[in-house]
Design brief:
Radius of gyration: 27 Å
GO molecular function: 1,3-beta-galactosyl-N-acetylhexosamine phosphorylase activity
Oligomer: single chain
CATH architecture of the largest domain: Alpha-Beta Barrel
Enzyme class: transferase
EC number: 2.4.1.211
Number of helices: 19
Largest sheet: 8 strands, parallel, barrel
Distance between the termini: 31 Å
InterPro entries: Class_I_gatase-like, Glyco_hydro_b, Ig-like_fold, Lact_bio_phlase-like_N, Lacto-N-biose_phosphorylase, LBP_C, LBP_M
Keywords: Glycosyltransferase, Transferase
Strand content: 25-35%
CATH topology of the largest domain: TIM Barrel
Length: about 725
Amino acid sequence: MEKKKGRVTLPSEENFLTETKELMERWGADAIRDSDGTKLDDSIKQLDAKIYTTYFVARGHNEFAQKHMEECQQLYLMSMFNTAVTETLEIDFMKGYFTEQLKPDYVHDPKKYWEVIDRTTGKVVDIHQWEVNEDKNSILITDAIPWHEYTVSFLVYAIWDPTQMYNHITNNWGDKAHDIPFDVRQPHSNEYMKSYLTQWLQENPDTDVVRFTTLFYHFTLVFNHLGKEKFVDWFGYGASVSVAAMDAFEQEKGYRLRPEDIVDQGYYNTSFRIPTKAFIDYMDFIQKFVAEEAKKLVGIVHESGKEAMMFLGDNWIGTEPYGKYFENIGFDAVVGSVGGGATLRMIADIPHVRYTEGRFLPYFFPDTFYEGNNPVIEANENWLTARRAILRNPVDRIGYGGYLSLAYKFPEFVAYIEKVTDEFRNIYDTIKGIKPYTGIKVAILNSWGKVRTWQTHMVAHALWYKQIYSYLGVLESLSGAAVDVTFISFDDVIRDGVPKDVDVIINAGDAGTAFSGGEKWADEKLITTIRAWIYNGGGFIGIGEPTAYHHQGHYFQLAEALGVDKELGFSLSTDKYFTTALEKHFISTDSTSFDFGEGMKNIYSLSEDTEIIEYSNGEIHLSSHDFGKGRGVYIAGLPYSEENTRLLMRALFYAAHKEGEFLKWHASNVYCEVHAYPLIQKMAIVNNSLNEQTTLVYDGQGNSQKVTLAPSEIQWRDFSNES
């Protein structure tokens, strides 16, 4: 059979023509791209492939930037906390920051644009009580209150792009020039970005796809005095701030932002913070501006006859592909980094583009491709987790990035990616555009709703953190499961109620976070709407500290529906009699052991009506409770694993009172899954592990058969809708 080709993007570099042609053939690549730090020479550009060229809008133009340093991008930063021991306190506000990246803004009056805050009282210190020493980068407070803590919120210029800085350090680029980021809100920069793009397009006739690796504003990434990451928030809007933006915001929204609206006590409005009205307004303001300006650039690209692609990373802030302005930009495509199933779906589900592309791991950088390391291990894990999601909704293309010459030195890796690309094309050609069978409609409920589709509990994209893996696992499990997933906000529910087609709501997160909801649960409309919905037959799954807000005798505001609450110490005088776990339960049928991640302590049952499913070490970790016609299920945490995916699926069907439908298109072995596509009468039986697996496979009519699968194998079977 002739080898299929296409839908794969290959990174390349100068003086690597012969090897590029070889890997194009082996991997079936039909597009070639450059990467940060590489260039394509003319011979490679003449190959029979689409040419993607990385394009930086607001960095990589130092000749211009150095002439307009007053138009550098800016950030609001907060100093460390400083305790006053006398009435005089000097604060070195740049302490802990990297001076090669950041430079204090003394061009604009600090008395107007900075704030000194007494963090003990929360009050702003009068501007007449402090002075700036520009030579020392310090502020002297003259009427401090002893034993109060103080911080300075100050403006800086960003004089080194953080992505280039990271790549510079990782790859030891030595004397290579530091990219200076400039702000396209400024007049000279705004004109330059358009005129240079027009010129660049004329000078690069071989480019087919302009890959906007950056647009205007980088996610918040600030380095410390050691040149290491100090603060990184993939959703951070900090680098979109400027004096010009603050002034324009006031004119558009009718009120003035404070520096505190940006620095947010040093939390910088991470996506874990319940967003304030000011920050929501600011996000909207930036998104609108970015969409308007990006649309102009896309128009220029289209006039030249080329495609415009956006990289969902680096300077993506303001684009928000699930936001209300993204459609207006007119991008042809979006490409993003795939860390697993959740990030694959984050890219694949993006609306309003002609195609999507996933950049798979590992990146071809020396931190992975070095002697003694085996990059196949990371590639294998990356592919198997992403493949589950691809079988639900595939991206249109896959690719890799970095130095191809590094990857070429690892023959086993090259051979493995050859298999991956073949398998991807086979999946895509079989199911693209075909809706898979789904047994449940799930709504993820948090402060962000649709705008953070497939993006909850992420910090630096898909990296592991101790505080999040017990929750991010929920998304990872759902990304490749036979369920429809939607994302709704508390405000959506308050305004419109629960969507009629939703079977189960999931509220997962630590108390006080945007994902659990905090004080939102004191809203009468929210709590009564969801209570009534559950009572009338809805399913509710709470994970971690769901609906948590201490109010009127409850910590979990849906405690009566969940059947459990959390002991804060206030009700220790009330005996907790109900601790006996059931011997068996529908939810735990396939569980041989339990992993609740970081778990949760002091969860107790409200009555004997609560079905305690797992109780150990004096703690309830898994339970269920009938509430009217509906059900509430409590889970202490859910890291991603095959067993936990199965447990979550069983919990969903149980909460929705659909236990009788659970075995429809089902694999008994937790390491295997069945994806059915009724429209084309095909099903994929998948082994998600690296070991041979045997499983009973149930079809849509209740029939079963035993199937054995080789390690990570997919078997395709035809079926009849009438059988």
